[in-house]
């Protein structure tokens, strides 16, 4: 009597899981090589060696070094997005000053987690080629900020929440990144207070 075969989707599941695990393995190896060698010395062969696979196996999952670099940046952006979204959503019911300070503290925690990797992304990766990889992160955070401003519009000086959210997200992101990378003679607590004051002055009504 012929042995029954499992449904096709059940046969594919282990293979898909293995494929996803290999992708993660290669992306992790790619980040390690980028951190150790820098962008100029980043090659597919180095990534393959780091991942413990052959170059041929590498090309089964990624077309070239740019594809794996994009995946490295995407994963970094997704991790930031998850962390910041969690902070924002956990404090949406708080008064404006508490929400702003909590969000800024969360942003600083995320950026300071791996400063040298952040420096590599900002200073070495060609912005024209990889700059748009952070667009999804900015859009997701911007949508949350815009929704908050819309809900609290009667208690703020904001007239166009989407416009204000776009400006706030990019201004705060730029200042926070530069603070982390330049490491000025300003305490983090003072920096967060000053940045929070700027944000609140922009969105809150004049007293």
Please provide a written account of the structure:
Residues 43-62 bind DNA. Residues 20-80 form the HTH tetR-type domain. The protein is mostly helical. It folds into 2 domains: 1-62, Arc Repressor Mutant, subunit A, CATH 1.10.10; 70-203, Tetracycline Repressor, domain 2, CATH 1.10.357. The protein is 74% helix and 0% strand. The protein has helices at residues 8-37, 44-51, 55-58, 65-91, 96-112, 115-123, 127-130, 135-151, 161-182, 188-203. Helix 4 (65-91) runs antiparallel to helix 5 (96-112), helix 4 (65-91) runs parallel beside helix 8 and helix 8 packs across helix 9 (161-182). The longest helix is centred in the first third of the chain and has 30 residues, at 8-37. The radius of gyration is 22 Å and the shape is elongated.
Summarize the entry for a quick read.
The protein is built from 10 helices and no strands.
Topology:
Blueprint: H1 8-37, H2 44-51, H3 55-58, H4 65-91, H5 96-112, H6 115-123, H7 127-130, H8 135-151, H9 161-182, H10 188-203
Helix pairs in contact: 1-2, 1-4, 4-5, 4-8, 5-9, 5-10, 8-9, 9-10
Pfam families: TetR_C_15, TetR_N
InterPro entries: DNA-bd_HTH_TetR-type_CS, Homeodomain-like_sf, HTH-type_TetR-like_transc_reg, HTH_TetR, TetR_C_15
Domain HTH tetR-type: 20-80
